[in-house]
């Protein structure tokens, strides 16, 4: 009798459990699926919960700490100002609210991939922007194609980004290394001009000189000497002496980093020997160590007094007001240009952030930036843009040599070869 009662009790308990589970299942089926929602409670297509405004989310990768922190800071400030400018202060486009998530790559490719994956998986961003380092950017490019999201590359310059590693979801507002080289050649090369080159002995130097040499020779110049130096060296005398012996009209320098050759170029009195020095004008902190090169002619990607347009006027004014009188630096306009490009693309698509649809709308798209008009070239999505032929001069009240405009180099003059 006890055994039968125990079995009856067990059976009744099981029936109650099954009934409770069925009730839970019925209740859950009536609730919306939120398992894929991002940090702002938005669904995969960027739509908010019922009754709330739809959102466009943008993830920005930048070196916000470490060696390239200043580059990341400039990009961030420019991007935020660019969104404000392009949306007339509303932070909305096509009736949708714009939200931005910034992530620090620490200038480490593996961290860049982790942060980009987080932006795509957890934050559900519609666009990716970045990064300060070409290494970080190259590591992230495949994710843009995998997730079918538009990635605006800014300010990374490696040719391979829009070359051998290109995929159709990549658009670049930053200039590339070949554009630098073409601009450098356009600034000084011509029929009968003799040029020597000086660069660090690794891929950055080799690629930069190869592109410059091709562009300079196409303009009729002759490359009479090529010198590649150990970037960690403290004495470049032997390299520079060989340049002096070649008796060029110009020495074109490709260099990056604090261990620069400028003081030794001055000590050897190369300019007094009739050899004009030419290079790209860097950001403001690096200009402060270029005192020995006052008088040199070269090119600039950007200096705040060089462009003459309403967008740059707005940028300079607003930047000074918001950042304690500081002027925008080398990569600030690039961040602004990336933001403007996204807003203009969304205007064309009426707010549709679908990557596949945007590709066709953005190919050939022109838009106004602090540097003037940029155009995404259809073949490789590289933004064609003006550059500047400049001369470094001392100016009263400015504690570094100032790039002074010789002439603007048009987007057509500085367009790089298509390498993809």
Explain this structure to me?
This protein has 420 residues and is of the alpha/beta class. The protein folds into 2 domains: 55-175 and 308-385, Rossmann fold, CATH 3.40.50; 179-300 and 388-409, Rossmann fold, CATH 3.40.50. 38% of the residues lie in helices and 20% in strands. The protein contains 12 helices and 16 strands. It has helices at 2-29, 69-86, 109-121, 134-147, 177-188, 203-218, 237-246, 262-267, 284-287, 310-322, 332-349, 355-362; strands at residues 55-62, 92-93, 96-104, 127-129, 150-153, 170-172, 194-200, 222-229, 250-253, 276-281, 297-300, 366-369, 372-376, 383-384, 387-393, 402-409. The strands form 3 sheets. A 7-stranded mixed beta sheet has the order 8-7-9-10-11-15-16, with helices on both faces. Strand 4 (127-129), helix 4 (134-147) and strand 5 (150-153) form a beta-alpha-beta unit. Helix 2 packs across helix 10 and helix 2 (69-86) packs parallel to helix 11. It is globular. The model is unreliable at 1-50 (pLDDT under 50).
């Amino acid at each position: 009798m006890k055994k039968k009662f125990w079995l009856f009790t067990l059976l009744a308990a099981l029936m109650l459990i099954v009934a409770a589970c069925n009730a839970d299942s019925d209740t859950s089926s009536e609730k919306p699926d939120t398992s894929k929602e991002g940090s702002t409670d938005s669904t995969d297509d960027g739509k908010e919960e019922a009754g709330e405004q739809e959102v466009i989310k943008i993830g920005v990768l930048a070196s916000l700490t470490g060696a390239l922190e200043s580059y990341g800071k400039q990009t961030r400030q420019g991007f935020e100002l660019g969104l404000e400018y392009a949306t007339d202060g509303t932070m909305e486009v096509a009736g949708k609210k714009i939200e931005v998530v910034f992530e620090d790559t620490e200038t480490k490719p593996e961290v860049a991939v982790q942060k980009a994956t987080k932006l795509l998986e957890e934050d559900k961003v519609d666009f990716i922007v970045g990064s300060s380092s070409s290494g970080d950017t190259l590591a992230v490019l495949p994710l843009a194609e995998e997730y079918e999201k538009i990635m605006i590359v800014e300010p990374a310059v490696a040719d391979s980004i829009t070359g051998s590693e290109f995929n159709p979801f990549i658009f670049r507002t930053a200039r590339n290394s070949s554009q630098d080289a073409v601009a450098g050649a356009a600034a000084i090369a011509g029929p009968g001009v003799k040029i020597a080159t000086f660069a660090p002995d690794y891929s950055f130097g080799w690629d930069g000189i190869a592109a410059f040499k091709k562009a300079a020779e196409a303009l009729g110049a002759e490359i009479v000497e090529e010198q590649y130096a150990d970037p960690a060296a403290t004495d470049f005398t032997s390299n520079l002496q060989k340049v002096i012996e070649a008796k060029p009209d110009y020495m074109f320098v490709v260099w990056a980093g604090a261990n620069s050759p400028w003081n030794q170029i001055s000590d050897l009195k190369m300019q007094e020997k009739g050899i004009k020095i030419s290079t790209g004008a860097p950001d403001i902190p690096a200009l402060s160590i270029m005192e020995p090169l006052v008088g040199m002619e070269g090119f600039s990607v950007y200096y705040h007094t060089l462009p003459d347009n309403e967008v740059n006027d707005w940028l300079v004014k607003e930047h000074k007001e918001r950042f304690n009188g500081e002027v925008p630096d080398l990569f600030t306009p690039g961040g602004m240009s990336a933001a403007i490009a996204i807003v203009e693309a969304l205007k064309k698509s009426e707010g549709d952030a679908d990557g596949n649809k945007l590709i066709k709308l953005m190919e050939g798209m022109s838009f106004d930036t602090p540097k003037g008009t940029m155009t995404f070239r259809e073949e490789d999505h590289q933004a064609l843009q003006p550059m500047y032929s400049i001369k470094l001069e001392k100016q009263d009240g400015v504690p570094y040599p100032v790039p002074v405009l010789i002439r603007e180099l048009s987007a057509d003059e500085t367009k790089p070869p298509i390498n993809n």
